[in-house]
Amino acid sequence: MKARLLPAGFLLVVASAGQAQAADLTISCGAVGAELQLCQAGVARWEAQSGHSVEVVSTPNSATERLSLYQQILGAQSSDIDVLQIDVVWPGMLAPHLVDLNQYLPTNATQDFFQSIVDNNTVDGRLVAMPWFTDAGVLYYRKDLLDKYGLEVPATWQQLTEAARTVQAGEREAGNSGFWGYVFQGRAYEGLTVNALEWIASYPEGGTIVNDQGDITIDNPQAAQALTLAASWINDISPQGVLNYTEEEARGVFQSGNALFMRNWPYAWDLVQSEQSDIRDNVGVVALPAGGENGQSAAVLGGWNLAVSRYSEHPQLAAELVAFLTSPEEQKRRAIDGSYNPTLPALYQDEEVLAAVPFFGTLYNTFTSAIPRPSAVTGDKYPRVSNAFFNTVHEVLSGNTEAQQGLDGLQSELRRIKGRGW
Description:
Its main location: periplasm. This is ABC transporter substrate-binding protein. Keywords: Signal, Transport. Residues 1-22 form the signal peptide. The structure is a single chain. The protein contains 19 helices and twelve strands. By secondary structure, the protein is of the alpha/beta class. The protein has two domains: 2-128 and 303-367, 3-Layer(aba) Sandwich (D-Maltodextrin-Binding Protein, domain 2), CATH 3.40.190; 138-300 and 372-418, D-Maltodextrin-Binding Protein, domain 2, CATH 3.40.190. It has a six-stranded mixed β-sheet with strand order 1-3-2-4-12-7. Strands 9-10-8-11 form a four-stranded mixed β-sheet. A two-stranded antiparallel ribbon has the order 5-6. Helix 2 (35-50) links the parallel strand 2 (25-29) and strand 3. The protein is globular.
């Protein structure tokens, strides 16, 4: 097995280096947290079992940059990557470039998976990706510090704000001048779409940007209230630098002991509990806060799937690799070793999995009822919708515009994107 980092000039580099031809297959994997190492380990197990060789390509951590890269590769009908790790919001966009796995896998291949994810990955009757791991946003917190200051785990975003201010002030007075109350993913990319949608959807009638009927709903008082509160965090309980944080930057601050709360995906659990972590055994995980007393916790659905490129020269072999990597044995290994959420309901009752990641049991309903982004209803226009949304939110967080003004402009921009329909 080979591994290499995918550079910006991917197509030119591969064409000149010619390395992809040395292996039977090439798979692209993410590199957030332990993601790349877990992928490499799974691929190595398949190589040992099958006798085939696989080259593992690391792609950008930013989902926005990764999608752009895939669109370049697939648009060129390149055979350089056989198996692609694709986001849960991409099947509809990338479907024309992906094989129908029903043609290569057994007829019962999807029967034990979450049906909602299988449905998400089925486009016009074609199974374009197999569910690999699912995700939903969760709140990490320092148990020791909440106990130290006599505080409860916050149930609302306002309570989180107040608790963060209290503990931040106390810790700074105690000598940790770099301590912050809350870190999250604030960079202008898909991760900010997720964070901001979680804030907005947690308020009554806040909505999900575009509803299931295709109506644009983002310009409403609850959404403005949510973004106004979030903007107040910058340089108060969140550092200015959070405006350029992705998942790993937020985890770095939290894991080094310099934040009370962190919004992130479940993968971070294994890392904050590692022997190298400064806060090991002092971390709790709960559902995200609600937007006020009448609101509700709103975790946005994430997760990644494995697809086979239409331009692969070995689609049957690639499908066999996909089947292996999404198997119960592999998903269990990834859950225990890296706290990646399985896409098989049975594994949430597995004693070894629950021993490794206890909140897989306590937050099961959070994972099964997570809110989808409006990718299905907006179709191939979703990237433009998301870009417009996260850029507007970033402007609000940066203090360049007021929330209501930003949402007014966003509503108009989304209408232009929609045109005569999604």
